[in-house]
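Journal club prep — side note

Before the paper discussion, L.F. wants everyone to see what a predicted structure for a comparable chain looks like in token form. Sequence:
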Amino acid sequence: MARRYRITNYGNTRKFPYKGEYYEISKNSSIETNNKQLAEEFGTFLFVDVKTIEQPMVKAKPSKRKKKVTSKIHKKIKRRKVKRRTK
């Protein structure tokens, strides 16, 4: 299972320093990351919540159906105009 971390800021909008970079998180918004160190560092700030999200690894299964091939050439159908008689 892949671990992801959701970091939520409940305080005012501010910039958080991490390894010479700054992450700006708005009030009542969140970001997701795979970096465990980043999540632990953000957990030390006030009004910041870190939750672990478990995500199952999904492998794509090859389809057993054959794909239908269609051509892009469209045939034009000629239609005759019908004249109506008036009495």
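L.F.'s comment for the group: The longest helix spans residues 36-42. Keep this in mind when we get to the figures.
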